[in-house]
Amino acid sequence: MGRFRAVGVGVASLSVAALSAACMSGGDKDAKVDAARAKASNMAAAASEKKAETQVAAKAKANELGQIPVIMYHRIIKNPPPGDDRTPEQFRAELERLAKEDYVPITAAEYVTGKIGIPAGKHPVVLTFDDSSPSQLTLDGMGNPKPDTAVGILMDVAKKHPGFRPVATFYVIRDLFGMSKPEEQTQVLEWLKDHGFDIGNHTHDHLNLLGKPEKEVEEQIASGQKMVTSLIKFSPVTLALPYGNQPHDKKWAMKGSSAGTSYDFRGVFLAGYTPAPSPYTKDFDPVGIPRIRSKEKVGDCVKFCSTAWLDWLNANATDRFTSDGNANTVAFPKFKAPFVAAPFAAQALPY
User: Which helix (H) or strand (E) holds 190?
Assistant: First the structure.
C-alpha cells in the first residue's frame, strides 16, 4: 500500500506540474496575443493620427521647405540719412503688412534650431536688429519700452494683431543701447531675455572681419560673446557678421575661442540679399544665412530689399514657408521630398 500510495502521490505531482506548465504556456500565449493586439492597435492609432496630420497639412497648403524672410533693421529714427535706417512710420507699416499677410515673427535662435511652432497656414518671419542702438530699445523709469522705439512699436502692433508674436533678435555690440554702466546694460539685456526676445553676437567692436587673421576674428567674436554672458545668464547661439562680410575661412565665424571664452554658433547671418532657406532643407547653410534689408523699392532695392521680396513671396506663395501647425512634423507636397535634409527625415510629412 505504501508503494502504491507513493506512486499515486508521484502521479498526482506530475499531473499538477503538467497542468501548471500548461497553464503557464497558455498564459504566455495569451500575453503574446495581447501584446500583438496592443501593437496592432498602436499602429492603427499612429496611422490614423498621421492621416489626420496629413489632411491638416494639405488643407493649410503647408510647405515647410519654403523660403523665410529674415529682415535686417538698424536704427529706427525720425529723419534717417540715406542708408539702412527706417522711420518709425515705415517700420510700423512694414510690421502691419507682415501681420496682414499672415506672417508670425520667430527668433533667429528658433529659426536655426528648427523650432518653428506657429499656427497652420501662417508664415515665419525673422526680425533682426543690428548694432544695439537706443532707437531699438530704451526703457523708461518704470522699465517699459518707450513707444517710439522699435520694441515699443513692435509690441503695439502685436497688441492690435493677436497671434503676431512680439519677438525679434538683437545683434549687440559694445554700445549696448547707449548704456554705459554695467548695471544699466544688465537691465536692458535682462528685459529682452525676460520678454522672449533673442540676443545675438555682432562682434564686440563691429569690426569688418574681411581679410582679418584668425586670431583677430576669434578675439572679436569671443569678446562679444563674453560681453553678453558676463552681464546675464544667456549665451547667444547666432552671429550676424558686421557688413555681412565673412572672414577668410568662414568656419572661423562659426566656432572658435579666445582668452578663455569659446563660441560655437548654430547659425551665422549675412547682410543680404535674398530670403533664407528653410532649416529643414538641404539648401540650409548655417555658415552663411542671407538676410533682407528693410527698404522700399528704390535703387538696387527695386529687386533685393524687403518690399520687393515680400511682393515676390506673396506672388509666389508655393515657394514660401507655410506651417502645418505642428512643430513635430515637417510637412510639404510630396514632390518636394528630395530636398528634405537628413536630420529631419524622420519628421517628414509629405502629402
Answer: helix 182-194
pLDDT given for residue 282 in this prediction:
98
Average pLDDT of the chain to the nearest whole number: 92
Alpha carbon 70 to its chain centroid, in Å, reads 11
Range 166-171 average pLDDT = 98
More confident residue, 2 or 88: 88
Q: How many Cβ atoms from other residues are within 10 Å of residue 56's Cβ? A: 19
Instruction: Report the relative pairing of strands 348-350 and 261-264 from DSSP bridges.
Output: unpaired
Residue 44, exposed/middle/buried by CB under 10 A (0-12, 13-18, 19+)?
A: exposed
Say how far apart CA 220 and CA 73 lie, in whole Å. 22
Q: Cell digits for 87? A: 522711420
| Strands 123-130, 103-106: pairing kind | parallel
Number of Cα atoms under 13 Å in the Cβ half of residue 162: 0
Cβ burial 100-133 (10 Å sphere, 16+ → b, else e): eebbbbbbbbbbbebebebebebbbbbbbbbbbb
3-state secondary structure of 297: coil
Q: One-letter amino acid identity for 61?
A: K
CB of 221 closer than 8 Å to CB of 203: yes
Residues 6 or more apart whose CB falls under 8 angstroms from that of 157 comprise 92, 95, 96, 99, 164, 166
3-state DSSP call for residue 343?
A: helix
Task: Report the distance separating Cα 26 and Cα 82, nearest Å.
Answer: 85
Q: Is 202 in a helix, a strand, or coil?
A: coil
Rounded distance between C-alpha atoms, residue 305 and residue 301, angstroms: 5
Looking up cell 584668425 gives: 214
* Strand bridging mode 267-269 / 255-258: unpaired
Q: Tell me the three state secondary structure of residue 225.
A: helix
What is the end-to-end Cα distance of the chain in Å, rounded?
Answer: 81
DSSP state of 10: H
Torsion angle, alpha carbons of 217, 219, 222, 227, to 10: -120
Measure the CA–CA gap between 247 and 249, rounded to whole angstroms: 5
In this structure, the dihedral spanned by the alpha carbons of residues 340, 346, 349 and 350, taken in order and rounded to 10 degrees, is 50
